[in-house]
Amino acid sequence: MKKSRFCVFTASLLLLLLTGCGMMDKASDAQNNFSDEYGDDIMQAIDDLQNAEYQDGPFENNLESAREYLLTQMQEKYGMEFSVAGRENLKNYGPFHGATYSCEVSPVDAPEQIATAVVSQTDYQDVRDDYAIYYFEEDAVAPVLTLCGTKDYVIDQRISLEMPETEKLWTVEDKLEQFLSESGAYVKLVLRFTDDLDTETYAEYLYDFLNSVDQLECNLLLQAKANKVYIFHEELAILDGFDASTYTVEDLRQEIEEFLSMGAPQ
Q1: 15 has a pLDDT exceeding 70
Q2: N or C, which terminus of the chain has less Cβ within 10 Å?
Q3: CB distance 69 to 59 below 8 Å
Q4: Residue closest to 262 by CA, chosen among 237, 235, 230
Q5: Is the pLDDT score of 9 beyond 90?
Q6: Is 67 in contact with 78 (CB distance < 8 Å)?
Q7: Which has the closest alpha carbon to 119: 79, 55, 165, 184?
Q8: 186-218 per-position pLDDT tens digit
């Protein structure tokens, strides 16, 4: 009796599987037929949608129109004439988001002051840029440079003030403290150490430096290089209560070894 029931169950299962396979094959065939008949039309419709342009934007979807609009926006914002310095990029995101244009710009009378600027037909109709760094950079980097000068193991450094592009207008009348706390700006610092030292020594250098940054009043992107490669990279939120006690020499040594094992970019 048990054997008979088992045979009936097995036969039923096989029939179900075969039926299922048949249905799956039919579904697959139907999908292939649909794809053969309508696939090209669907792909063309998708391409047409992606390439469609936003209507009624503040500039047309071409470089000349986008460039003119951005430069006019910069002049109105800062009261001086700008020109394109390089890295132009115009990308169309379709009929809903429109085109976005970005480039490097600089004042006509100060071509060395290169900033990034971006506008779009929808979200960024008011230009967003980072030109304000030139109002605050000298005062922002001075304390960082002074700190580096107190460390004899720092044989060279590269310091710059960085910020995200913003539509807000910062001026020379704004206070440095307010700018650093509200704009998202930070000082990027690349330390250069003597080449060919052991990782323990580099870790001790970094431990000492990290325990000295609390005297600064800016956020810091700290990097360190030796033998022409990066051995450390970390964002330090000093304005938000950075705590150097979370680091140990051993942790830093392991981090340096991980950087070196990954073949850190030159």
Answers
A1: no
A2: N
A3: yes
A4: 230
A5: no
A6: no
A7: 165
A8: 999 999 999 999 999 999 999 999 999 999 999
| Residues ≥6 apart with Cβ < 8 Å to 65 | 59
| CB-CB contact of 232 with 222 (8 Å) | yes
Q: What are phi and psi of 135, to 5 degrees?
A: -80, -25
Q: Is the pLDDT of residue 50 over 60?
A: no
Cα distance between residue 213 and residue 218, in whole Å: 9
List own/partner pairs for 72-79 with CB under 8 A and 24 or more apart: 73/117, 73/119, 73/126, 73/127, 74/105, 74/117, 74/127, 74/129, 74/131, 77/127, 77/129, 77/169, 78/107, 78/131, 78/169
β pairing state of 220-226 and 186-192: parallel
Q: Would you state the structure tokens that stand for residue 66, as one six-digit string?
A: 């986008």
**Which secondary-structure segment (H or E) carries 157?**
strand 156-162
Tens digits of residue pLDDT in 115-157: 999 999 999 899 999 999 999 999 999 999 999 999 999 999 9
Residue 187 has φ and ψ, to the nearest 5°, of: -95, 125
Position of tokens 């330090």?
236
Q: What is the 3-state secondary structure (H, E, C) of 165-192?
A: CECCCCCCCCCHHHHHHHCCCEEEEEEE
Say what the pTM is: 0.77
Q: Find out whether 148 and 158 touch, Cβ atoms under 8 Å.
A: no
